[in-house]
Amino acid sequence: MTIAPSAAARAFLDGPHRLLIGGEWVEGEGRGIAVENPARGEIIAEVRAASLDQLDQAVSAARSALHGDWSRLGGRDRGVILDRFADLLEARADLIGEVMTLDNGSPLLSSRMVVQHLAAELFRYYAGWASKIAGESFQPSLTARPTLDIMVATTRDPIGVVGAIVPWNAPPGMMALKMAPALAAGCTLVLKTAELAPLVGELFAQLWIEAGGPAGAFNLIHGHGEDMGAAMAAHPGIDKIAFTGSTAVGRRIVEAATGNLKKVSLELGGKSPVIVFPDADLDAVIPAAAMACYLSTGQQCMAGSRLFLHADIHDRVVEGVATFARTLKVGDGLDPATVLGPMISARQKARVLDYIDIAKAEGATAALDSATFDGPGHFVGPVLLTGVSPGMRIEQEEVFGPVLSAIRFDDEDTMVDAVNGTPYGLSGSVWTRDIARALRVAKRVDSGQVGINIHAAMSAETPFGGNRQSGWGREFGREGLDGYLKTKAISINLGPKP
Ligand code: NAD
Known about the structure:
By secondary structure, the protein is α/β, with parallel strands linked by helices. Helix content is 39%, strand content 21%.
């Protein structure tokens, strides 16, 4: 089914496409980026990357705003701007969602949910925090100066200029996750969009102007990772890199950041487990386990791509998930019936198909194999593999596609060892009606978040991040704000103790 973009989306795609630097729309002076709609394999827009000079200009603009207009606003007024931004996101959710769909293939319903239930919620939540950032004061026990009356006051100050680097899989959510806490904290930003899905960034820049955001506090640039992203990671004028993307690139960013020892937060990849015990409510487990992996066609960091099934219910759940997955319509995200969109690129499709071959060569069997699709677009349908055992590459490595591996277990300890036996530790879920077992296993799963009878329950208030090679630091919630603040302790000599 072919559905044309709306008139508003068409007008946006036709351009002009520009960067926002120091409050001015400017033409990119770097490489051209042809933006492809992955559902059709067609080029829908041309944007231009920033040049390295333009990166310097964006960093200077962010530095000026940090010490100028943005810092002069109090927390309350920063919050008002963030709240207005949330209002605008909600009002434009249809257009932003549609552009996300055209840009990265995500089904329209999911795209709108990312705008309304992730991005707008994050701006609202951190708008509230902007006026509540405070230090503390106390009397230290200064035993070396027992006669002096000393008071310590701490301040919580913005960490500085933030370089935000985001992936293509959910641009509105990923951008909000950097912008909202950083701006609430009083930081300023240079945000680089992902070269595979750069368009929504321009809509965010437009909303920043409409929300009354001061020039230079938020700067938007396009660029490729290997040159522009790398230049940001090494830039001496950037105080912190906030990165979401792959573990391999996260490692490169850490290396590049050593020049000025800038702070780095990393939200990276995952290989998350969904663990099902025999007493679980299987009617709830089956659709949830399928969608834990297949949501966004597997292109989400929290994908529950390893399904640990107790031997007693293994076959029933495998059959149920395969039957359920057959009902999921794969297609163009603009079609309202579509549940699973395409892979982001021909390269990603080839990578996913490779992993399926590798798994079969390692001894896995496909209980469902809808991988192959004819026609334009980079589609891969849902695949469910059985006979997967711990240590196989398909069990260890992030595929970022709709490939679910079922792993049979009998013994809880052995299963927990396997769950924690990959380099990743991002997410996971435990499914059982036995509360003691649920909590015991949830505590033993080494990951940043675990659901009990729910997978990937994200909210603006709930801290989110990875253990081991899934990341550094936490986003969302109060901890998400802390990552953009630094503490100063001021010791005040009040004179001799009375
Ligand atoms: P990616 O690492 O290839 O790219 C992410 C961003 O990094 C892009 O903007 C890219 O331009 C930039 N980049 C690439 N090379 C760079 C370099 N050398 N220096 C600086 N920047 C560079 O990841 P992707 O393919 O866009 O996204 C998929 C990955 O992101 C998956 O591994 C997924 O698990 C992860 N992800 C994690 C989370 C999370 O919250 N933990 C969320 C979404 C995606």
